[in-house]
Design brief:
Layout lengths: L9 H7 L9 H5 L19 E3 H10 L3 E3 L5 H10 L4 E6 L12 H5 L2 E5 L5 E6 L18 H17 L1 H20 L4 E5 L4 E4 L6 E4 L24
Antiparallel strand pairs: 1-3, 2-3, 4-5, 5-6, 6-7, 7-8
Bound molecules: iron/sulfur cluster (2 copies).
One iron/sulfur cluster binds next to helix 2.
Length: 235
């Protein structure tokens, strides 16, 4: 990747964000829980990758893996298109059996994480799309995320947030929504910080408590002891 944030290519971006999330193939862990046997993030019934226009141009000229996502009905299509940023579009691949690792979108590589941005506008590190806690195995195993993946994620989003300021605003809004929802549920926000440590963030005060990533909560169907009181709950 170029040192300059203003000069990068999709090819460079893809090559510098290619580390697997961890040593284990997490798709093997979650797929048995999906009725069609696909990993949840590779099934458009659960998650539809949004790609930057520049990515779509690059992918079209390099692979036949992708096509534009076609909604099952008009209403769903309208809703999701309205939620999709202007310089992005929704894609669908030919399915997990045909995956081409080098042509995965940034969305494929980043899932289930997003860049967490605090109230001061700082990109602190990785948090996750909490609505997948009941499906994504990774969210119950945050101690499995490799340091290499974390660093590649951070470098990639530094470039993307500098290139697409509107994306920074979207992720800041999503982070704010997470604080609001987690505060309502009296939950701490899990953070894999860019400094290499893990923290639990109090959503109201944004106070950060360092923790062992193995202490983060697990969720059904992956929870070992779902009935126990979880350590990320706070008084
Ligand atoms: S990231 Fe989550 S949903 Fe995607 S394959 Fe891994 S465990 Fe499954
Ligand atoms: S390209 Fe690969 S990782 Fe991305 S949605 Fe398709 S099967 Fe999943």
């Amino acid at each position: 990747m170029s040192d300059s944030h203003s000069h990068w290519s999709i090819d460079e971006l893809y090559r510098s964000f290619n580390a697997p999330i961890g040593a284990l193939d997490c798709g093997q862990e979650c797929a048995p829980y999906n009725e069609n046997g696909a990993p949840f993030c590779c099934d458009t019934q659960h998650s539809i990758p949004a790609a930057y226009t520049a990515e779509w141009e690059y992918l079209q000229s390099h692979t036949d893996l992708w096509h534009q996502w076609q909604p099952e009905n008009f209403e769903l299509g309208e809703t999701l298109h309205q939620q999709t940023p202007e310089d992005m579009l929704l894609l669908e691949c030919r399915g997990h059996a045909h995956c081409q690792r080098s042509y995965r979108t940034i969305a494929c590589r980043a899932f289930p994480f997003f860049p967490y941005i605090n109230r001061s506008g700082e990109f602190l590190g990785l948090s996750y799309y909490w609505e997948y806690e009941d499906r994504c195995w990774v969210l119950s195993h945050l101690d499995c995320i490799s340091a290499e993946y974390r660093q590649q994620f951070i470098k990639t989003f530094e470039v993307l947030l500098a290139t697409y300021p509107a994306e920074g605003e979207n992720f800041a809004a999503y982070s704010a929504e997470m604080r609001q929802i987690f505060a309502q549920h009296r939950r701490a926000i899990p953070l894999l910080h860019r400094n290499g440590n893990a923290y639990k963030i109090s959503p109201a005060s944004e106070r950060m408590r360092r923790c062992d990533p193995a202490d983060f909560r697990q969720f059904e169907p992956y929870a070992i002891a779902a009935q126990l009181r979880f350590p990320d709950e706070y008084e």
